[in-house]
Design goal:
Largest sheet: none
Distance between the termini: 34 Å
Order of helices and strands: HHHHHHHH
Strand content: under 5%
Radius of gyration: 17 Å
Number of helices: 8
Number of strands: 0
């Protein structure tokens, strides 16, 4: 589905939710759940916490839909909420994880996702978010800037620095050719 169509559907759904109709929440979930989950997973680095953040985000959408401005960027608005929910979960997290909560991934796609995220281990949380937003979510620098509450220029520079950091760590080369 083209991004413009998705954006329009999400925009209309949020406006309808703000007027008290809960049915469009299903539309938002269908179109945004994966993006919310991936964003949350990049921050929490835990599948259960990412699922919790997804559910919290959906609840927050209902709660704050009236503050949404029709015609603005619904994806950025939703991912901002998701980012805040995921960061809240990380802040509340206990310093250790009980062994009975640790499980091995049983699906190859989950293992591949874990492997891809493990490559980002050398980055701090903010750098990981930038990489996920730009490469996976395919957000523009201005959308990233809005979500992370930084300037567009800062989003570009931080993204470039994060890529350089990964490149240097994983290839030993400092500059892209």
């Amino acid at each position: 589905m083209p991004d413009e169509t998705k954006s329009k559907l999400c925009d209309d759904a949020i406006v309808a939710i703000a007027s008290g109709d809960r049915q469009p929440l299903e539309v938002l979930y269908d179109h945004m759940a994966r993006d919310i989950y991936v964003t949350s997973l990049a921050i929490t680095r835990n599948h259960a916490d990412a699922e919790d953040a997804l559910q919290d985000t959906m609840l927050q959408i209902v709660k704050y839909a009236s503050s949404y401005r029709k015609g603005s960027n619904p994806r950025a608005w939703i991912l901002t909420i998701a980012r805040h929910r995921a960061l809240d979960i990380v802040r509340r997290r206990k310093p250790t994880i009980p062994l009975d909560e640790i499980s091995l991934a049983d699906e190859s796609s989950e293992v591949n996702g874990e492997l891809a995220l493990s490559l980002l281990d050398d980055l701090n949380s903010s750098e990981r978010q930038l990489i996920i937003f730009r490469l996976y979510e395919e957000l523009s620098y201005s959308e990233i800037a809005k979500i992370m509450k930084i300037s567009t220029f800062a989003a570009q520079k931080r993204y470039q620095r994060a890529l350089q950091k990964l490149k240097k760590k994983h290839t030993g080369k400092e500059n892209f050719q």
